[in-house]
Amino acid sequence: MYINSIGYYVPTERVDNEYFEKLNGLPEGWILPRTGIKTRSKAAPDENVDTMAIDAIENALPALPYDIKDVDLIIAAHYCAYDTVATAAHEAQAHYGITGAKVFYMSSACSSFINGLETVEAFFQSGKAKRALLICSEHNTYYSNERDPKSGHLWGDAAVACFLSPDKMAPTDVEVVALHTEGLGNVGKGPDGVKLRPKEEGITMPDGRDVFIHACRYMIYSLNETLREAGVQIADVGKIICHQANKRIVAQVAHQLDLGLDRFLNNIEELGNTGSASAALVFAQHRDDFEPGALVALTVFGGGYSCGSALLKL
Q1: Is 183 found in the same domain as 138?
Q2: How far apart are CA 135 and CA 77, in angstroms?
Q3: Same domain for 141 and 243?
Q4: Which H or E element spans position 281?
């Protein structure tokens, strides 16, 4: 399976740590060492999950080696939603006039992008699709409670759009070498670790320590499973991109893998936790920086819990 083109959208507004100090008394000296976050991206009042998804698709279109109307599978894979009936996938189909495509929404929280890749792969292997569009769009600030001292200061907004095919379409295509995903609802706090209840308290993370421990453990586990399947040693991987939940998690993953932080790419310092879009977003932002033949690994952890990893070859 190959990524034919990947695009992204990040809102222009940034919310700095001073804002949260004024709001709930958390100084930058408390936030920054614990999270690695200096600013967060925030969607404008006229932006939402759907508008950001379309903007990410638009960013991907110039490099797409076929007409978007050739897409026969559209998956929106994320947890924030503007409308849970008319999903971002259906909005994309309508916006571009794509006829006859299979279209649906799925979520495994912050693991959704990797689960989305695996779902696309299954459709390709079954012969039920030949061109796919995978969308991850998160409007965290719409749901977050900024006054929540546990997690209100973590969230950012962004979207990623990824076009895929079972066969290589152009020299610039990125190969998806191997994938691993796993549900972890029976581990630790599981479904109680992170919640999004729009009519109640919005996004909450009642036990950040449990999330931290299991995120570190299972991002490493999932990465190792993916590398084992691919027959690749971690020394052969040029860059590793973790889910951008917390920079301390990335540092802990690097420590446990006995790797330098220079092997890891991040954007959390500027954008905060952009949910399911985060790891794919980091890859998309650096897409043109990688040399041909380079191996890049994405590894993620989602509330619920779940984990997933992907090995990409440029």
Answers
A1: no
A2: 6
A3: no
A4: helix 278-286
What b/e sequence results for 292-305 when a residue is b if at least 16 CB atoms lie within 10 Å of its CB, and e otherwise?
eeebbbbbbbbbbb
Angle, helix 247-256 to helix 28-35, in steps of 10 degrees: 40
Same domain? 180 vs 45:
no
Residues shown for the chain:
314
For the segment 91-107, what is each residue's pLDDT rounded down to a tens digit?
A: 999 999 999 999 999 99
Which amino acid appears at position 276 of this protein?
S
> Does 109 have pLDDT greater than 90?
yes
Q: Are 6 and 161 in contact (CB under 8 A)?
A: yes
Instruction: Supply φ then ψ for residue 29, to 5 degrees.
Output: -65, -15
Shared domain check, 308 and 236: yes
Instruction: Report whether 306 contacts 182 (CB < 8 A).
Output: yes
**DSSP states along 21-79:** HHHH---HHHHHHHH--SEEEE--TT--HHHHHHHHHHHHGGG-SS-GGG--EEEEE-S
Residues 154 and 179 in one domain: no
Residue 15 has pLDDT above 90, yes or no: yes
* Domain CATH code at residue 213: 3.40.47.10
Q: Give residue 264's domain range.
A: 174-313
Q: Are 203 and 293 in a shared domain?
A: yes
Give the number of domains in the chain. Answer: 2
| Residue 280 in tokens | 């794919």
3 state SS of 156: coil
Q: Pick the last residue of a domain from 97, 131, 165.
A: 165
